[in-house]
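Please, structure for the following, as tokens.
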Amino acid sequence: MTQRVDLSTVMDRISIDAVITGYAVAVDDGEWADYRALFTPDGRADYRTAGGIEGPAPEVAQWLSQTMLLFPVRQHLIVNRRLDLQDLGGYPGDGARVQADYMNPMRLGKDTESAGSGTDEARPTAPNFVSGGRYVFELARTEDGWRIRGVTVHEKWRSVTGALAAD
């Protein structure tokens, strides 16, 4: 490999990492236009193992926009990223695959425990729903940079506390 190829590979890795981070931030902040912009025009998302849907990214974004209203507090942590760039005989191709573990603490609804206590009712509280698993992202280099062709969620576990655990 030449220095130029090495530099290109490093730049691809940084760009792909920005897409994965942008994905988590878009979901956590409810920025659904940003979420859709991370995908290729034919991009798909599959949340079925986490109780969700599978389909074209715009349809899934619409579903997420409604579903995430249940969780006003959420924060994806995406770690242990394994990135495999397409290799064309020593040169990077236009495809990539990322496997990344996630932990997703969320809070359902308002903090009803402090309601009426004179405290700020909108103040975030500890999560009462946490899930973890692995994402598999398939990415493609486009004219606009790296984009997600597909993301599949493989939920491995979840934990609920408080009133949720009693249901």
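The mean pLDDT is 88. Strands lie at 39-46, 54-56, 73-74, 77-87, 92-107, 129-142, 145-160.
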